[in-house]
């Protein structure tokens, strides 16, 4: 089953708004009951239960259409025991502090639950500045420190990794790649043959595969007739699992069509299943696009093809083209297919 099982993907990404609305993608992480957000523009279409499940927000840059939704996210999460990790470009910790500075927090230390925002500003020299803001301490900026990022790696969990590169939009603009290190499918009949029951242990088993544990590693599993069976990981892999390349998606917004940006985008989005890429201007308006440090439809399609993306999803259309959505999609698609 090359490329993973399309019926059972881990990541469920979707645009938050229609293509002429604010940019943003909500990624639901199946099985973990949580979400990631790419950009925090207008979030009003996202139901509060999904905002509450959001553990990470990745902000390309803090132009208002990419960051105005911070307030809604904060409003929904306030009073909950929860940590929210936010990532953004240089200066991002100041922007987050500025958001908190807009409100009065004298009551916040009295809330039973502590809502925490952990903000990280990705610098262009491979470091990042992080700071925390706790409702319990009226969102005062604290625990500030500088960390080193390994090749733009922002999140490295057993089942999920997020990477960033900095693009030129006149100002730094971050693009992101989210991927599973591997996709593990479990075969029920394989478990039956080994006399094993299904259950929560399968999650640990998948994590052992993601971590690339040794094939000799012993795995304890519940037997179908009760008791515990211990088997080496290699045997389980051979008889009950298929391990395929993980799912990958990339998110690219607000970037000029420069050779440097093109190289970074194609590298970041290499072989992704899905590339969300901004396409604000029509192909004929390349000069205006260049002046605004944005891509055209045609450039977006070409970049998707150069990266080897399986599919491109254009968005962030300029409102000047309202009523021309189909033409814009066609321009992206024909450039994507032509390469
Ligand atoms: Zn912008
Ligand atoms: Zn924008």
UniProtKB/TrEMBL annotation:
In terms of NCBIfam families, this protein maps to:
PRK02126.1
Keywords associated with the record: Hydrolase
In its keyword annotation, does this UniProt entry include Hydrolase? yes
What's the protein called, per UniProt?
A: Ribonuclease Z
- Main EC class the enzyme belongs to: hydrolase
Q: Which organism is it from?
A: Azospirillum rugosum
Provide the E.C. number(s) assigned to this enzyme.
3.1.26.11
Protein's UniProt keywords contain Lipid biosynthesis: no
Tell me the domain of life: Bacteria
Q: Which GO terms describe its molecular function?
A: 3'-tRNA processing endoribonuclease activity
Signal peptide extent: none
